[in-house]
Structure formats: structure tokens, C-alpha cells
Amino acid sequence: MHDCGHVAEDSTDENSPKEVDLIKIENIAAREKETAILIPEVFNIYREKLTAIAITSDDMEPTISKNAIILCNDFGFVGSGIYAVKINGVYSVKRISLKNTESYIMACDNKLYETFEVAINDERLEIVGLVRVAINIL
């Protein structure tokens, strides 16, 4: 067993749940080990590249629910996908694609929000990383 503990995971055989070892991932909002979240050890190979972010908006519902926790890498933009972004100092999640060599298209899965365009060199935009895992809290 590893120092962070383990959790029983659902199994197809009710009599034999399997244990999943856990590792800690830093929370981007606080950047402190005390606020780290525990995730399955299978992600250990990405440990130094993953950051946890608590989502507080509904702009990506139904794909990512409000109050979900996402894990994103820190590689920046690597092609179309769902990304954690920081716009005007506020963290959120957007579906991003490249419009041309000068701008990104930012879209929300929630149809109540409009798609918009942002210049690649806009100083108000920081692409935190590609979302690798979304933990939807019901």
C-alpha cells in the first residue's frame, strides 16, 4: 500500500471489490499540499504534469457538471479539445479549436452560452491545460 491510502472501487463481482491505490494531486487554486486531492494511482505517470481545478460554473454541462473536479495537464494548447483556461483571472473550462493562426474558437457545451473568439496573443487568456479527467460530483 502507498502512503496516501486506497479506496475500494466498484467491481462486476459484488463479493470482491478491488482496491485502487491513491496519489495526491495539487489543487491549482491554493497551490498547497494540504488541499491536494486523491486520485487513482494509475495516473501516477502524469503526477508532475496534472493539476486539479474545482469547477464552479455550468458552462460545460452536461459534459462536465457544475462542482466537478477536473485534472488537466500543463502542456498548453496541443490541438482541439476541452481545456482548463484562465480568462481575466477566472478559471473555467472551454472546448477550444484553432480558427486560424491568429485566434481560438471558445465554445461551451451548455447551449445557454455563446461561442466566442479570442486572439492567440490576448494577454487576458491563459490556457492552463488539456482536461484529462473530469470527476462529476452528483
UniProtKB/TrEMBL annotation:
List each copy of the Peptidase S24/S26A/S26B/S26C domain by range: 30-131
Q: Which InterPro entries match?
A: LexA-like, LexA/Signal_pep-like_sf, Peptidase_S24_S26A/B/C
Organism's domain of life?
Bacteria
Protein name per Swiss-Prot or TrEMBL: S24 family peptidase
Q: Which organism is it from?
A: Brachyspira aalborgi
